[in-house]
UniProtKB/TrEMBL annotation:
It comes from the Bacteria. It comes from Leptospira stimsonii. This is TRL-like family protein.
Length: 111
């Protein structure tokens, strides 16, 4: 095989492959709680990853899904509302740290 063709195939393979993250699906709330004795509390989840040498991802692909699952676990059969996702990043010595923060309100009926 010709050197130029091999290099072209190598570049094509490099350009068409990428990291794939876990999609986060936020379901619609079933029915709002009609009880007047309901309590609304905030819920918070944060996950971070690192991009080593601005090229090698470490823990980046599923940080949104992990942060959202932390919020869902805090809900404990309550209804989530006003869910927000926030991205932030920080320079580090060998790369960049990326963080995803998920905040929401959890409404629970009184027991």
């Amino acid at each position: 095989m010709n050197f130029k063709i091999r290099m072209l195939l190598l570049h094509l393979a490099f350009l068409t492959t990428s990291c794939v993250s876990t999609p986060v699906f936020i379901p619609e709330s079933p029915v709002p709680i009609q009880n007047t004795n309901s309590v609304t509390v905030p819920a918070y989840g944060r996950e971070c990853g690192f991009l080593l040498f601005l090229f090698f991802p470490i823990g980046l692909n599923d940080r949104s899904a992990k942060a959202y699952s932390k919020v869902v676990s805090q809900a404990e059969n309550g209804i989530l509302s006003e869910v927000t996702f926030q991205e932030s990043w920080y320079w580090a010595l060998l790369g960049t740290r990326y963080c995803t923060t998920v905040t929401a309100f959890v409404t629970k009926g009184s027991k």
